[in-house]
Design goal:
The protein is an alpha/beta fold and 124 residues long. The chain has a single domain, classed as 2,3-Dihydroxybiphenyl 1,2-Dioxygenase, domain 1 (Roll). It contains 2 helices and 8 strands, in the order E-H-E-E-E-E-H-E-E-E. Helix 1 packs antiparallel against helix 2 (81-90). The longest helix has 12 residues, at 19-30. The protein is globular and about 45 Å long. The N and C termini lie far apart (32 Å).
Length: 124
């Protein structure tokens, strides 16, 4: 199997009503960077987007008449759970689990303003 260097074998693909706002949310909360943004017809529409968080890629696009919004759940290792959780709460996310020490690490969870669930754990 020949996978291009800037991709992984499995990557989420989200279809969102507010793709541009999702992109800005990920940049602020996770420090995501744009790998590729293909604009749609509207100035805030994204026909295809790719965000990079550490080595991971999240692909996303605006919903339309044929492709309705689909939410997801994602687990992600982060450098600082408290910082990411705080930024998510500042960005109108809903807490699913406040930061707490678990058997598997320091973790938290939240639902972003777009309906996606994020489970974050601090990498050692």
């Amino acid at each position: 199997m020949n996978i291009p260097n800037n991709y992984l074998p499995v990557m989420p693909y989200l279809v969102l009503d507010k793709a541009y706002e999702f992109m800005e949310f990920c940049k602020y909360v996770f420090g995501a960077t744009e790998q590729m943004i293909v604009p749609g017809q509207d100035t805030r529409a994204i026909m295809h987007g790719e965000l990079k968080i550490h080595d991971a890629i999240i692909m996303f696009a605006n919903s339309n008449e044929n492709w309705k919004q689909k939410t997801s759940g994602t687990f992600i290792f982060v450098t600082n759970v408290d910082d990411v959780y705080k930024k998510a709460m500042e960005s109108k996310s809903i807490s699913l689990q406040q930061p707490v020490k678990q058997d598997y690490g320091y973790s938290a969870g939240f639902e972003d303003p777009f309906g996606n669930h994020w489970w974050i754990t601090q990498g050692e």
